[in-house]
Amino acid sequence: MKTVFLFVVLIFTSTLLNAQESSATINQDSTVKKSRKEIRRAKMDADYQKTKQMLTSKHFVLEADWLSSQTGPKVPVTANLNFILVDSVEAVIQTGNNFSTGLNGLGGTTATGSINTYEVRFNDTKKSLSLKMEVSTSIGHYTIFANITPSGNTTATLGGMRAGKLIYYGQLVPLEASFAYKGSSL
User: Fold this and answer.
1) What's the per-residue H, E or C state across the chain?
2) Quick one: which of 47, 80, 113, 182 could link to 150 by a disulfide (CB 3.0–4.6 Å)?
3) Longest CA pairwise span in the chain (Å)
4) Phi/psi of residue 14, nearest 5 degrees
5) Domain 1-186 carries which CATH code?
6) Quick check: 21 pLDDT over 60?
7) What is the tens place of the pLDDT at every residue in 79-124?
8) What CA–CA distances, in Å, run from 34 to 104, 133, 150, 162?
9) Where are the domains of the chain?
10) Which pTM value belongs to this model?
């Protein structure tokens, strides 16, 4: 009888000790989760400020990884040949490919022109950015609408004087860090 009693007391004690350890583990896990959230939030704030600074300084390049028309599928493209470059009062809009030569020598077109309208909207609570820009080039007048995430992921819609739109999906990078290769302008 004593052995059964000792066995029950031993199991009860080990269960209590195990419960205390698991509650300590749960507290540690919640602390780790909170610190991960804080780290993520701090990184997002830093990225948001960096992207905001690029847009206000007007020195950036949208390097497109994907292009699509308003009804067509997304097509993967080379980022250093497909871009929208903004350098203070001038903009370059370019498409190109690695397989043929086009009007710009890169299998596409390059339009260089002046920026007529440049409007940036910041939503500091949602950490979202948007851009509306109008560019006049020698081959036409273009309007660009862009939605930008804090990390610089961008979706930009390019519209011109004709029907149809071209959509650039890519990353916003500082002008100095860009590998964009500009072709011959029309």
Assistant:
1) CHHHHHHHHHHHHHHHHHHHHHHHHHHHHHHHHHHHHHHHHHHHHHHHHHHHHHHHHCEEEEEEEEEEECCCCCEECCCCCCEEEEECCEEEEECCCCCCCCCCCCCCCEEEEEEEEEEEEEECCCCEEEEEEEEEECCEEEEEEEEECCCCEEEEEEECCCCCEEEEEEEEEEHHHCCCCCCCCC
2) 47
3) 101
4) -65, -35
5) 2.40.128.410
6) no
7) 999 999 999 999 999 998 878 777 778 888 899 999 999 999 999 8
8) 52, 40, 21, 51
9) 1-186
10) 0.79
Task: Please give the structure tokens belonging to residue 37.
Answer: 């959230």
pLDDT digit string, tens, across residues 1-20: 667 666 666 566 666 555 55
**Contact call for residues 167 and 61 (beta carbons, < 8 A):** no
82 CB-near residues (< 8 Å, 6+ apart)? 63, 64, 67, 94, 95, 96, 108, 168, 170
